[in-house]
Amino acid sequence: GTHFHNQLMYAMSKLIGYDHTHSTTYHPQSNRMIEKLNATFVPQIAKLQDKENNNWDEFLSPVVFAYNTGTHSTTQYSPFQLLYGREPRLPTDGKLSSFTFR
Q1: 72-97 pLDDT per residue, tens
Q2: CB 23 within 8 A of CB 35
Q3: Backbone dihedral region of 26: left (phi > 0), alpha (psi from -120 to 50 degrees) or beta?
Q4: Residue 97 belongs to some domain of the structure
Q5: Does residue 44 belong to any structural domain of this protein?
Q6: Total domains, the chain
């Protein structure tokens, strides 16, 4: 819509340095990369959500985190590694000896 096609968005694309592309409405074949990403996320979120409460948004961040920190077969790296040039620090990386249980 027009909220993505205006002077502000044009200036942002120049400032940040990205190409703003458009796709045809209701024609998923023209937006293959996003459809592939959705095909990855949607089944995972569907398994986690409570259909009665429609709480899918509560699981979006953990699913995206898992995707971004997981190794991808094509690149053999995680998106996190490609973006930051290092392994992500995960909550499970802490030394077990540093935890105290009472």
Answers
A1: 999 999 999 999 999 998 888 876 55
A2: no
A3: left
A4: no
A5: yes
A6: 1
Can you give the residue range of the structural domain that contains 59? Answer: 2-87
- For 33-78, the pLDDT digits (tens) are 888 888 999 999 999 998 888 899 999 999 999 999 999 999 999 9
pTM: 0.64
DSSP letter for each residue of 9-53: HHHHHHHHT-------TT-GGGGHHHHHHHHHHHHHHHHHS-TTT
Task: For residue 73, give both structure tokens.
Answer: 């077969």
Distance from C-alpha of 20 to C-alpha of 11, rounded to nearest angstrom? 11
DSSP 76: S
Enumerate residues 6+ apart whose C-beta is below 8 A from 50.
none
- 100 secondary structure, DSSP code: -
Looking at residue 102, what DSSP letter applies?
A: -
Q: Is residue 93 part of a domain?
A: no
